[in-house]
Write a structure and sequence with these properties.
The chain is α/β, with parallel strands linked by helices and 244 residues long. It has one domain: 3-Layer(aba) Sandwich (Rossmann fold). Helices cover 34% and strands 14% of the residues. It has helices spanning 3-9, 29-35, 45-50, 63-75, 81-93, 138-144, 148-158, 182-189, 217-228; strands at 39-40, 55-57, 129-133, 168-170, 193-195, 205-213, 233-241. The chain has a five-stranded mixed β-sheet, sandwiched between helices. Helix 5 (81-93) packs across helix 7. It is globular. Mean pLDDT is 84; it is low at 99-117. Bound molecules: zinc ion (ZN). Zinc ion binds at residues 14, 16-17, 19, 27-28, 30-31. Zinc ion is lined by residues 14, 16-17, 19, 27-28, 30-31.
């Protein structure tokens, strides 16, 4: 059907509040302004040591954002991607990627890096940076047909010239982490991830990306593998987290 016919019959609406919008499946201005909330997540000591660049959530996993992320993941609603990309791109731009990974999200915009784990050094040279999505088990990937973290982050990161590389594989299926104690979670995931063939990490700064962070054990295990493969520093970015 022609787009204009579609727009006439079903005018585009904000997927969150239902207000009429300019583009299909795009946020209205007021929902968008309220949803982009990059924040650094508090980490337990073990993670803190591994994630020199910290772990950042681009917003809070609640309300409309939660619905969109769930609909993408579980119902395969890829029509939500343009709106989610717009959200992720805006969030990433407010992270201190060019400077040290300070606590103030706006601190790094265009300012010279301080050498504390920033992705661009004092001379403005881009360091070897690569983003790695948390992998799904091959069975899950076949069933779902896509890795949501890859779908969410590849395009917004490409705009910043940060390549996304599927450098990790999930070598065994794991039971869901929900309801397990910290020790059980860690045991459950031990050895669950490995470096993919050709996944060269030596000397690279790595950004691990995932759709949400719940307990952090998954990110922790991924970071362990990447560090032992030679990554010089690791930071995490998740689309959303339940922690504010
Ligand atoms: Zn709205």
């Amino acid at each position: 059907m022609f787009d204009w016919v579609l727009d006439l019959l079903f005018p585009p609406r904000c997927p969150v509040c239902g207000r009429y919008t300019e583009g299909r499946d795009m946020w209205c201005d007021s929902c968008f302004a309220g949803v982009v909330k990059p924040h650094r997540l508090p980490l337990e000591a073990e993670m803190h040591g591994l994630f020199a660049g910290g772990v950042w959530a681009l917003g809070v996993y609640e309300a409309g954002l939660r619905d969109m992320l769930r609909q993408l993941k579980y119902d395969g609603r890829k029509n939500l991607l343009p709106g989610l990309h717009q959200y992720i791109a805006a969030g990433i731009r407010r992270l201190p990627l060019t400077g040290g990974h300070g606590r103030r999200p706006e601190a790094g915009n265009g300012s010279p890096g301080d050498g504390q784990g920033g992705l661009i050094d004092r001379e403005g040279r881009r360091q070897a940076v690569v983003a790695v999505p948390v992998p799904l088990h091959p069975d899950r990937l076949r069933e779902r047909g896509f890795n949501q973290s890859e779908l969410l982050f590849r395009e917004p990161l490409a705009a910043l010239e940060i390549p996304l590389q599927s450098a990790l594989v999930r070598c065994r299926a794991t039971t869901p982490q929900f309801g397990l104690t910290a020790a059980e979670r860690s045991r459950n995931l031990q050895g669950a991830f490995a470096l993919a063939d050709g996944g060269e990490m030596a000397g690279k700064k790595v950004i691990i990306v995932d759709d949400i962070m719940t307990t952090g054990t998954t990110l922790l295990e991924c970071a362990r593998v990447l560090k032992s493969a030679g990554a010089v520093s690791v930071m995490g970015i998740v689309a959303a987290s339940g922690r504010k």
